[in-house]
Give the backbone structure.
Amino acid sequence: MQIQIDECIDWILHTVEFKKNFNYKYASGEGWEFLIFGADDYYLNMKALAKIEKTTGMVLVQIKSSDGNADLWFGRKMEAIENNVKKRIA
């Protein structure tokens, strides 16, 4: 059973060192859900990625960087759970 997306956000914020000017949003589609973290400065290593994957089931699927800002895309397949309402984060 997957942990709730809010708990995934907490784990990622706790594990990745976002230094300044960061934000995050939630997106889903075609059976996948994503957390996209935008940041000007962050620190991430392989040990942190392994911890995130083991705890949340989310893997780093993409890093997109432009003009000093990076978007880190974490994703996982959605589990079909009845009456489970995911919070949309804008």
Q: What stands out?
A: The mean pLDDT is 88. DSSP finds two helices and four strands in the chain.
